[in-house]
Design a protein that fits this description.
Length: 202
C-alpha cells in the first residue's frame, strides 16, 4: 500500500501556492504507468493507464482506470482517498497537502529538448523535493506541465508518463463519491493489487 500511496501522492505534486513555476489549477491527462519488478532474477513489466483529473479549486484529484474498472478520488479538504469500483467503495486517510508548484528546494538536474530543435523543452528535478525520502526524478515542461516521473524502490521501478494534458475539467462527475460515505477499509491493499496492473503486451 505504501508504494501505491507514494504513486498517488505524486499526483498531488503539481499544484501549491501562488509563486514559482505552477501547473494550471485544472487539468486532465492520459497517464501511462509502467512497473518493472525483479522476480526471481527475472524482469517483470506491467503496464496500465489512467485518466487523471486534477482540480486545485475543488481540492480533488481523480484517476479513472478504465481497464481495471475502478476510480480513485483524493479529497484534500476531507483528507480522504476514495477507491470506487462499481458498488464497492472504500475510504482511507489522505493527510497530504495538495501541491500546485515546483517546490523552491527542488534541484534542477537537467534541462533538455526532447527530440531536438523545436522539440519539447523538459526540466528534470529530484523526486525527494516533492516526495520526502523517495528516490527518483520528475520531468516538467518549461510551463510546469508534468511530463513524466520515475520512482525507484528497492526491487522495482515505477514510471509515469503524462500525455495529452488539457486544461479544464470536462466532466466534474469524476470527482463524485457515493453517499452515504464509503466505509473505512483498512485492507485496501487486497482490493488494489488485483485491480491495478494488467500484464504488459508481449
Ligand atoms: C509495482 O510492483 C511492486 C512489486 O510487485 C508492487 O509492490 C507495487 O505496488 C507496484 N506498483 C504500483 C504502483 O502498484
Ligand atoms: C523541501 O522543502 C519541503 C518543505 O519545507 C520539505 O518538506 C522537503 O523535505 C524539502 N526537500 C528537500 C529535498 O530538501
Ligand atoms: C492525444 O491527442 C492527440 C491530439 O489531439 C490525438 O490525436 C490523440 O488521439 C490523443 N490520444 C489519445 C490516446 O487520446
Amino acid at each position: 500500500m505504501l508504494k501505491f500511496v507514494a504513486f498517488a501522492l505524486f499526483l498531488t505534486v503539481v499544484s501549491v501556492s501562488g509563486e514559482g513555476c505552477c501547473a494550471p489549477k485544472q487539468w486532465e491527462s492520459l497517464v501511462g504507468i509502467q512497473n518493472t519488478t525483479a522476480v526471481d532474477g527475472m524482469i517483470k513489466v506491467t503496464q496500465t493507464y489512467a485518466m487523471e483529473s486534477y482540480d486545485f479549486d475543488r481540492k480533488k484529484i481523480a484517476m479513472v482506470f478504465p481497464t481495471e474498472g475502478f476510480r480513485m478520488v483524493q479529497d484534500y479538504d476531507k483528507k480522504k482517498l476514495y477507491i470506487i469500483a462499481g458498488t464497492y467503495c472504500s475510504a482511507i486517510p489522505w493527510p497530504y497537502p495538495m501541491i500546485n508548484c515546483i517546490p523552491e528546494n527542488a534541484t534542477l538536474l537537467f534541462s533538455y529538448e526532447m527530440g531536438g530543435s523545436g522539440g519539447l523543452m523538459v526540466n528534470q528535478y529530484n523526486l525527494d523535493a516533492f516526495l520526502h525520502d523517495f528516490k527518483g526524478s520528475m520531468q516538467f515542461t518549461d510551463k510546469c506541465i508534468p511530463v513524466s516521473q520515475q520512482q525507484y524502490f528497492d526491487s522495482y521501478v515505477t514510471m509515469f508518463g503524462f500525455t495529452n494534458v488539457t486544461t479544464g475539467i470536462k466532466d466534474p462527475s469524476v470527482f463524485d463519491v457515493p453517499s452515504p460515505p464509503c466505509p473505512m477499509d483498512t485492507d485496501i491493499d487486497n482490493v488494489l493489487k488485483p485491480l491495478l496492473f494488467e500484464p504488459a503486451q508481449p
